[in-house]
Design brief:
The structure holds two protein chains of two kinds. Chain A contains 15 helices and no strands. Chain A is mainly α. Chain B has a six-stranded mixed beta sheet, sandwiched between helices. A five-stranded antiparallel beta sheet of chain B has the order 13-17-14-15-16. In chain B, 28% of the residues lie in helices and 32% in strands. In chain B, helix 2 crosses helix 3, helix 2 runs parallel beside helix 4 and helix 3 crosses helix 4. Classes of the chains: A mainly alpha, B alpha+beta.
Chain lengths: 263, 317
């Protein structure tokens, strides 16, 4: 009896919190399929998706490399500052994205420490560079957070064995360490990508939200909703595409993962 | 391919792992580092391999100063207690690793790996992953992997510690035979004196960060240099200030000079051997080791009070 209670609680929770809103969104989209399709395929929406993918394509590799290096430093090195580093990596999870955005505005603004970029004609704020910076900031912890426990769990004996067998530090990393943590890295990349695609608050503050120029997909959804005037299909349609992208990434990962565990 | 450790010291915080330790290992020999846990034996092995850096002292491998060499330049094979198998590689790739990172020609690697898999009897398992092997098979794979690049020395850190008793005895025999075949200078660490006596031609007994004595198994048993060696290598009884091996104690019917009165607590027989455990009037409990035949001649039984005499005894300063 208790077994069923637990299951129905878990399922019911999912239904209300996750599936309900998604289903409603799909329902509304289907209600005006033509309107939704027109919104999705409009020039500025396509540009917004392009910008989102562009920013994601830059932020994910940066944070993957940083995350792996960070994980190695936190787990393997003995330098005294690694505890502080470990705590700082989590900062973007604790900070509200709006604060992240505002801090970037202050930093790169005319009177900020990095304001000299603007003096030399390099546009950071209200342009693509600021969107990339904000996205990198908010999606920073995910790879490191996945890699750290895995590195701890595998220990360093395999790495020591590789060293005694004649492998250099670089060879040990590529042939032993990285393959051992590859699923943690993949999982971290998926979470990072999902966060990059979905980021709203920080990007809203720093981007300027100019249609067709500095408007990402999430900002586009918000615009479509704010200026819906009773016609919500465009907003729901674009949102649905965004959700589908995230679901696709997750499904792709669950499809590849069990093959590894069976080996 | 000799190994010399000179005045090695190592501390971990407040703990002294090695205190001015020196050890010489002849080329081609099979040496055991024997001692209780925390005696520094694993640390010494890891320093020889370059996996730890000593606070002071020197390491010489094959006549060359290796103290400052990184582990990958020392040409040592190292076998870990928990195998340290590369989990994402097949048995074949594990064994080939030391050759692959040295960028040896493919045909050479293929031949060498096949030869080693034959040597450790894992030919049939070449395409499996370590997770699909038993503990004993994994450790044999680790040995083949360590031997593949033709190391100057082979170092084994409690290599059989994680295996069950039967597999352990098998691998022990097997290591001895392997050493006769391959003749690479070998040091292995163990806390099991029977294992050390069984496998090694030379044993270095370690205790409290120091080497207490180095010698052949018989030398250590017959002429222990310290009380610790006496009690750690082979069984020993303490009679007053003196130490006596269990087979050197005798039961006599009449009180003679130096004989001790004792109560027989237990008599156990094991195959050809028998043991009598006694409690003397004063002092620590005694164990006598004798043959079944001798036990039957004696006609003693549990609960009886007898006289015990030492045929030989040792005292240490």
């Amino acid at each position: 009896m208790r077994k069923y209670l637990l299951r129905s609680t878990a399922l019911g929770y999912l239904l209300i919190i996750l599936i309900g809103p998604l289903a409603m969104m799909i329902w509304r989209t289907l209600g005006d399929l033509d309107g939704a399709w027109a919104a999705i395929t409009s020039h500025n929406t396509l540009l917004a998706f392009k910008l989102t993918l562009y920013v994601t394509a830059i932020a994910v590799p940066i944070n993957t490399v940083f995350g792996v290096i960070c994980g190695l430093v936190i787990v393997r090195s003995t330098f005294p500052g690694r505890g502080i580093l470990n705590a700082f990596v989590d900062l973007p999870l604790a900070l509200s994205p709006v604060i992240v955005g505002l801090s970037l505005v202050v930093l790169y603004g005319a009177n900020g420490w990095f304001g000299f970029f603007g003096d030399h004609g390099i546009r950071i704020l209200y342009a693509v560079p600021a969107i990339v910076l904000a996205t990198v900031f908010v999606s920073l912890p995910f790879v490191a957070r996945e890699v750290v426990p895995t590195l701890r769990e595998i220990g360093d004996e395999q790495e020591q064995a590789a060293r005694t067998l004649g492998a250099s530090g670089w060879q040990t990393f590529w042939k032993i360490t990285l393959p051992s943590i590859r699923w943690a890295v993949v999982y971290g990349v998926v979470l990072t990508a999902a966060r990059c695609i979905g980021e709203f608050g920080a990007v809203l503050v720093v981007s300027g939200n100019v249609e067709g120029k500095t408007q990402t997909a999430t900002l586009r959804v918000d615009d479509a909703y704010q200026f819906a005037y009773g016609n919500y299909a465009p907003a729901y349609g674009i949102a649905l595409v965004l959700a589908a992208m995230a679901v696709l990434v997750l499904v792709a990962m669950t499809l590849v993962k069990p093959r590894e565990e069976a080996a | 391919m000799s190994i010399i450790a000179r005045n090695i010291s190592k501390r971990f915080g407040d703990f002294t792992a090695l205190d001015d330790v020196s050890l010489e290992v002849e080329g081609g020999s099979l040496t055991a580092l024997l001692g209780p846990s925390g005696s520094g034996k694993s640390t010494l092995l890891r320093i020889i391999a370059g996996l730890e850096t000593p606070d002071g002292g020197e390491i010489e491998i094959s006549g060359q100063d290796a103290t400052a060499l990184r582990p990958q330049k020392r040409n040592v094979g190292f076998v870990f207690q928990h195998y340290a198998a590369f989990k994402h590689m097949t048995v074949r790739d594990n064994v080939a690793f030391g050759l692959t990172v040295r960028k040896r020609p493919r045909s050479e690697i293929r031949e060498r790996v096949a030869e080693l898999l034959r040597l450790v009897q894992l030919e049939a398992f070449a395409d499996r992953y370590p997770a699909q092997l038993s503990g004993g098979q994994r450790q044999r794979m680790a040995l083949a992997r360590a031997l593949a690049p033709d190391p100057h020395v082979l170092l084994l850190d409690e290599p059989f510690g994680a295996l069950d008793a039967r597999v352990r005895a098998e691998l022990r025999d097997w290591l001895r035979r392997l050493h006769e075949e391959v003749h690479v200078t070998t040091i292995f660490v163990t806390h099991d004196q029977a294992e050390a006596m069984d496998v090694a031609s030379q044993i270095a007994v370690m205790n409290h960060a120091r080497v207490e004595q180095v010698g052949s198994p018989t030398e250590l048993y017959d002429n222990p240099a310290t009380e610790f060696v006496m009690s750690f290598v082979g069984d020993a009884n303490r009679v007053g200030e003196a130490w006596v091996r269990p087979h050197e104690l005798e039961i006599v019917n009449l009180p003679t000079d130096g004989a001790v009165e004792a109560l027989i607590e237990r008599i156990t027989t094991y195959g050809f051997d028998a043991r009598i455990e006694l409690t003397p009037g004063e002092g620590e409990p005694l164990t006598i080791q004798l043959t079944r035949e001798r036990l039957e001649q004696l006609e003693v039984e549990q609960g009886q009070i007898v006289w015990v005499q030492a045929a030989a005894e040792r005292t240490f300063a």
